[in-house]
Amino acid sequence: MNALIIYDSMYGNTKTIARTIAEGVTGNVKIIKAGDVRPMDDVNLLIVGSPTQGGRYTKPIAAFLNEISGKIKKGTNIAVFDTRMPSTWVKIFGFAANKLADYFKKEGFDTVVAPEFLLVQSAKGPLMDGEREKAMLWAKNTCRTMNP
Ligand SMILES: Cc1cc2nc3c(=O)[nH]c(=O)nc-3n(C[C@H](O)[C@H](O)[C@H](O)COP(=O)(O)O)c2cc1C
User: Fold this and answer.
1) On the CB side of 12, how many CA atoms lie within 13 Å of its CA?
2) Measured distance CA(7)–CA(47) in Å, rounded
3) 134 SS3 class
4) Ligand 1 centroid – CA 123 distance (Å)
5) 51 lines ligand 1 (CB under 6 A)
6) pLDDT in the model for residue 41
7) Ligand 1: does its nearest atom lie under 6 Å from the Cβ of 132?
């Protein structure tokens, strides 16, 4: 199994989560920051994660999605996550993970598990207690649920 994790991160929290997810995923795992992306060869599981900024994913993630549009191999398992703040007022803008799932839906791919979100205490972090453990469980669940 070849997994590719693409993430973006301004303050390091999403990077920490991406690394935790990489530890929880079985098989070959490549983890790459959006912007440093190389072509995707033989990827069975593509995981994309972004900080929520202004209710959506970041520009480097948008550029990555633009680049792979129409080129995702049939049968690729897709999973998405974001980091976000717990405050209720931000809800009106939406969140990165949901918009990532919407993007993949438009490309013809359902995510193999529900989009995950991990909470930061404030914009710069740190992550709230238990969020790394949550990410690890989600990674393991993703591998159990995905198609071989
Ligand atoms: C410009 C900016 C806009 C943000 N907008 C939102 C938002 O709409 N909703 C939200 O929950 N968090 C928002 N945040 C908080 C980010 O989600 C938080 O900074 C991020 O999860 C931290 O991840 P990182 O350390 O990987 O950058 C925003 C942060 C920045 C810097």
Assistant:
1) 3
2) 8
3) helix
4) 5
5) yes
6) 74
7) no
